[in-house]
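Bench notes, afternoon.
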Amino acid sequence: MEDNHETQGLKYRQIARSALEVGGFTGTRGVLLQYEDKQRSKPTEKLKSSSLAGGLTGGALASITRRRANVFPAVLVWSLLGLAGQGIYNAADSQHTKAENVRLSGDVQAPLWRRIFNSKWSPMKVLTDEEYDVILREKLRAINAQIEIVDEDIRGLSLPQEKE
């Protein structure tokens, strides 16, 4: 019976710690970005704020839940995690913003695979329907010409046999 209470207590402590991590990080980051307009803050400001918020939250939680020797490593790790997470988000947001700007401007860029195949260095080329139709018509003309030549050869061979 005591094991069940201990595991439930451990579970609740883990949930509380996770809530403190998320809430502490988000709250600290919000306070740090408060001086800047959140919508207009630069990506570098967001990187600094997220890194600092991660470090402060990680250090605070390490000082509460662990020994004093674990505070500096926690600050370092959580700062790097905050920095990496914000950097990934900034990169994804930048790509999304570029795609939306292109979509809204109407200047649609060809997909990557099409640009690769249409480059001058590629041995292949993406054909439009009209180009493919022209190629097929040329091949059909060449085949018809070969058929005519073979027909003439057959007529030429059959004529001498009929004379005999």
